[in-house]
Every structure is written in C-alpha cells, then in structure tokens.
Predict the 3D structure of the following.
Amino acid sequence: MLKVGLTGGLASGKTFVATLLENHGCHVIHADRIGHEVLLPEGEAYPAVVQEFGCDILQPDGHIDRKILGKLVFADPKRLELLNELVHPHVFRRQEEFFARVAAQDPAGIAIVEAAIMIEVGSYKRYDRLIVTYCSPEQQIERFREREGASEADARARLERQMPLDAKRKFADYVIDTSGPKGETARRVEEVYQKLRAEAGSVDR
C-alpha cells in the first residue's frame, strides 16, 4: 500500500483533486472532516478543548462553535498551537486506523490523506509521497471569496497566515497545477495517478 499526502493552501483545489483521485480508485480521507468529528460532543478532543477554551465556545446545544473557536485561535499563534496539540493526536490516530483498513482491504492500493497543514506540522513525513496543489495567490483569494462570500481583506488575511504555495512546492513529489480549466487539472491528475499506481504496485508493505 502506498501512503500519499495531499496538501496545498487556501482554495488551491485540494478537495477537487482528492475527488478526482478517489474517482480513479484511490482511498481518500479528509483530515479537516476528522478534525470536525473529534470536536463533536462525543469526540475524543471535545472535553480537553472545552476545558481549555471555556464554555463561551459552545452553542446552546453543546456543540463547539467553530467560528468562535477560530476567532480565538487564528489571531493568537500560541493558542492555535495549543488547539493543534489537543486535536492532532486524535486525528493522526484515526488516520492510522484508516491506513490499517486500506492495507487489509487493498494491499496494493493507494491511501490518500488530504490535509491543509501537513507540511507546517511535519506530518508530511508520515507519507511515501506528497502531492501539492498549486495556483496563484490571486486565484486563491478569488476562489475563497466566491466560495465563502468573504471580503478581499479577510481572504488576504487568511492567506498571509499560511505557508506560501511556492514554499510548499519544494516538499512535493508531485505538483498539480489547478490554475487552468478543470479539464487540464484532470489530465494532470490522471498523469500523477498513473505514476502512483505504478509505485503502489511495486511496494511491499
């Protein structure tokens, strides 16, 4: 089984590329969705996060209000680091369970984890190969504004807090340029998939 990390930046096309790879038969899991799950009232990280950040982050039904929590941590790098320390171990454990399931079901398969900050936190080292999705900062801002209805100032502020895609590209085994039409991106994904397929068939894990 080949373990593949898929990352990028704000609105750089990660989810679209993940969907295309899944359509090719890859096994895909999304780290942000796992992050949401472990913060649910029944989730593993919920008690520690509520204890650390207080009941003000809770909605009336007891769920964590992710927008309120986001405002608390994204303006304070130390608090963001603390939140990651509380959440990431549970996310990584679920990823390992995902790898174990894929290895048992499809020993020659391709298991892909899509996550935004795997380079920043060093978890990219856990994978056999790393894919980075890439487009220009201007396209990231435009896409984010269209998707979220955000202001340009908010989009730029979010982008400035992230590691630039040009820096992330240096870590990549494969770069998928998403700046053109979706058909071009799909063709590049097909090329990368074929290379991964060949590699997966040659590994014995």
Remarks:
- The chain has a mean pLDDT of 94.
- The CA atoms of residues 73 and 106 lie 39 Å apart.
